[in-house]
Write a structure and sequence with these properties.
Layout: H1 3-12, H2 19-29, H3 31-48, H4 50-53, H5 85-121, H6 123-138, H7 141-152, H8 156-166, H9 169-182, H10 186-193, H11 198-206, H12 211-234, H13 246-251, H14 256-261, H15 267-290, H16 293-296
Helix pairs in contact: 2-15, 3-5, 3-15, 5-6, 5-8, 5-9, 5-12, 6-9, 7-8, 9-12, 10-11, 12-15
């Protein structure tokens, strides 16, 4: 006899759905974001499982099989030194995706530290840090990255470091803007009034509310870094042969004869770059729409 009232009471006092739960549902309903997520997961899987997916070596030269078209043995043909294009394509994914993730991680750490200090401290600290940030943003990033990469020497590690150290200003300005807005909110004033320390206010009250904006910026940053790495490697200032990357695979196929008659040498790495960048941008669009406060209220 008391089952129905008890159920009604339990439904009445049921915990409301959290904003993160609503955002997650909105993200999974975003078709382009789901397509991008699936494609990115496939790219990551093929990069990690590359030794299991192909029997060929990405660096071993076979002068008897130079520039062969696609066949049963070499599904995407061979390059100018007889190396299997599909094998190099899969192993190149390891390098290109790793550069994107590591470089953005470096820039994210620097940007978050600089932006949070400037946004919360304000005053002269804010002015000083933002002027330094403005100096970094004044110079054309690609030109500076190329110059620094040429000065310290081309390698995959230098590419990660250089790109990471020179792409943090946009994240710093984003985090600063978020902190400037949030530090004047009522919940921050309340925490300050009861004696909560600055570090606790920063990391427990303000920073968690900036994660959504940072997540969107990071996804877009990874896509941009993949393009930067491909540009550096294409110019010979990034990943060096025989280590494969999508950028230096395009560099090896830049002659007019190859472009006209051997599309298997340049089309696959170009498509992989485009697919990776599009997938990450779709995920960023999905995160932006899902985490928009006006959409999840």
């Amino acid at each position: 006899m008391t089952t129905a009232p008890a159920q009604a009471v339990s439904l009445a006092i049921a915990k409301p759905e959290s904003l993160w739960s609503k955002a997650r549902k909105r993200f999974f309903r975003h078709k382009l974001a789901m397509f991008g997520l699936i494609m990115l997961c496939l790219l990551i899987f093929t990069a990690i499982a590359a030794p299991l997916l192909t029997p060929h070596s990405p660096v071993e030269i076979d002068l008897r099989g130079i520039r062969q078209p696609p066949s049963a043995e070499h599904w995407l043909g061979t390059d100018g030194t007889g190396r299997d294009v599909l094998t190099r394509l899969l192993f190149a994914g390891r390098i290109s995706l790793s550069v994107g993730i590591v470089a953005v991680s470096i820039s994210m750490v620097i940007g978050i530290i600089v932006g949070s200090i400037a946004g919360y401290a304000g005053g002269k600290v804010d002015m000083t840090l933002m002027r330094v940030t403005d100096v970094f943003m004044t110079f054309p990033s690609l030109v500076i990255i190329i110059t620094v990469a040429a000065a310290i020497g081309p390698s995959v590690y230098n590419a990660m470091l250089v790109i990471g150290l020179l792409t943090w200003p946009s994240i710093a300005r984003l985090v600063r803007g978020q902190f400037l807005t949030l530090r004047e909110q009522q919940f921050v004033r309340a925490a300050r009034s009861i004696g909560v320390s600055r570090s606790q206010i920063t990391f427990k009250h303000i920073f968690p509310n900036t994660i959504s904006s940072i997540a969107v910026a990071v996804t877009i940053g990874v896509a941009n870094v993949i393009l930067l790495e491909a540009s550096l490697s294409f110019l010979g200032l990034g990943v060096q042969a025989p280590t494969p990357s999508w950028g230096n695979m395009l560099r090896d196929a830049q002659s007019l004869n190859i472009l006209e008659s051997m599309p298997w040498m340049w089309l696959p790495p170009g498509l992989m770059i485009a697919l990776a960048v599009l997938s990450i941008n779709f995920i960023g669009d999905g995160l932006r729409d899902a985490l928009d406060p006006r959409s999840i209220l």
